[in-house]
Amino acid sequence: DGGITQSPKYLFRKEGQNVTLSCEQNLNHDAMYWYRQDPGQGLRLIYYSQIVNDFQKGDIAEGYSVSREKKESFPLTVTSAQKNPTAFYLCATRLSGTGHNEQFFGPGTRLTVL
Amino acid sequence: AQTVTQSQPEMSVQEAETVTLSCTYDTSESNYYLFWYKQPPSRQMILVIRQEAYKQQNATENRFSVNFQKAAKSFSLKISDSQLGDTAMYFCAFMKHSGNTPLVFGKGTRLSVIA
Fold first, then answer.
1. Are A66 and A75 in contact, with CB atoms under 8 Å apart?
2. Which among A59, B33, B73, B104 would be 20 to 30 A from B50, CA to CA?
């Protein structure tokens, strides 16, 4: 099946630990995005990548890091520097080119830091 | 920078009735896209409808339609014949026309459809 996979669906970590959220896609899309969702805040951009080995910071990048070594994968690491990491994290992809304007979303990962 | 404002945090509508969700945005771009996304309790984001700014005709998808007023920077969503399955968070979003730029989202409107 074509799609976007985020695993796991629920993730629990102790305070002070780094944690990596997975995002994998087999849609052959060029661009990938990470958004954070908090109650009453909508979705806010953390990082995005338009091509392999390149990525840009979003509005709330502090305390997060990413890599884009393969087209299919865009993992997000939540570091201990992120002051309030408990949130719902959504990965999205988009195909490049004129007329391809839709972003497709994965099912999300709920991270809870205890 | 672009901003998107949804001024209605919560709304409710009776089943089979019509409801309109409001969205305003601010941008200096002349060409862009606007979207409405739906997020049901499963939390999966689903595209409801999109509008290209250079198209004057309002987009329509079955029971969903928009009222796009470019000069006023307004982009409202009308849901006709509301169904229980329409209960969800609805997000208005903006995207520049060029490049793989990210979406800019409003804070959302929680819509409840009442039987």
1. yes
2. A59
- Does A39 sit behind a cis peptide bond, omega within 30 degrees of 0 on the bond before it? no
Contacts of B6 in chain A (CB under 8 A): 42
- Work out the angle at residue B32's Cα, subtended by the Cα atoms of residues A5 and B59, and round it to the nearest 5 degrees: 85
Whether B95 has its CB under 8 Å from any CB of chain A: the answer is: yes
Please check whether residue A50 touches B, CB under 8 A: yes
In DSSP terms, A66 is beta-bridged to A76
Q: Please, what is the average pLDDT of chain A?
A: 92
Rama region for A16: left / alpha / beta (φ>0; ψ in -120 to 50; rest): left
Tokens of A8: 């796991």
Q: What is the pLDDT of residues A31-78, one digit of tens each?
A: 999 999 998 888 999 999 999 999 999 999 999 999 999 999 999 999
Q: Which residues of B touch A96 (CB under 8 A)?
A: 100
User: Do A85 and A63 meet the contact criterion of CB atoms below 8 Å apart?
Assistant: yes
In the block, tokens 């470019």 appear at B70
Please answer yes or no on whether A101 and B50 come within 8 Å at the CB atom: yes
Any B CB within 8 A of A45 CB: yes
Residue-wise pLDDT tens digits, B4-55: 999 999 999 999 999 999 999 999 998 999 999 999 999 999 999 999 999 8
Nearest to A45 among B33, B99, B102 (CB): B102
